[in-house]
Amino acid sequence: MKKYNPEKLTISNNDKMMLVSNLSTLLSAGIPIFESINTLKEESKENVKYFLDEVSDDMIQGKTLSDAFRKFPNVFSNININILKASEHAGNLEEALNDLKISVRRDIEFRDKIKGALLYPMVLLVVFFVVVLVILFVAIPKIATVFSNLRVELPLPTRILIFVSNALTTYTIPILAAVVLIIVALVYLYKNNKKRFLLALSSLPILSRLFQEIDITVFSRNLALLLNSGVAITTALELTQDVVLSKNVGKAIEDARVEVHSGGRMSEGFRKNKNAFPGVMVKIVEAGEKSGRLDSAMQDVSDYMDYNVSMNLKTTTALLEPAILVIVGIFMGGVMISIIAPIYNLISHIQVN
Question: Which chain positions lie within coiled-coil regions (predicted)?
């Protein structure tokens, strides 16, 4: 079997959900944890099998499930590990695994919403890119040959268009190699600096508010899970602070943690940061603190923000689509004018003569 680096091993969200779900089902059926892991190994994919082998070996050496999972930071986050650790102490591991399964499923659904909303604008951009390439590789060379034979003086936009077309057709392989290298470099940088990349993206005016609401949704969902598992509120706030990108949201969480640590309420820390958390969320949290059901309140906040993100995604894509179409229209119009203008000038010159 192929050897993996535990610190770099990744498992897809779908595989992770199946793993956690099956493990929870086997434990609920009364099968011991060690036997359940060995059962799951039989029909698992290679990377999942390696993961289960390592977990099994660690548990033979006396480690707990949470300690065995801790070796794989790209598979289970610190939040997931702490949920499992708290449940092991409380003796309700199967319940924690079931909560984890629900959490992973919601993460998948949430990401699918975002991907689905961005699909149409991405398709538009791809179609636009293909059309531009067809024009530069097929149409422009033929038109350039006609203009060259007629020895017509061309305007600057037309000369630029012909120059780009000639460069692409003459140096196709070097340019293609350069584009591939740039794409590979960008993918590598994204994988190794994902947080910085997303942080830069979240600073864009049209996306900043959307990213902040996504942060609040992820934060509230994870906080609800941690509190429901019995993790102390200060520890839960410290852990969830690492999952957000927005500086405003991060500062609000830190203020809430300091407030709780000093004997105050979490809602007071949130209230100090009105630019980070909406008033409705603060009210829901305050009600949860008074009723003693803060975990349930945070889940309500997560559901509320999830709905808000869905609506804002629709609004954002509704704004992006016409903006992309306008940009495409302006570019294509410029290309058409660059082609038609010399022809029109030539016809006018012939008529005058």
Answer: none
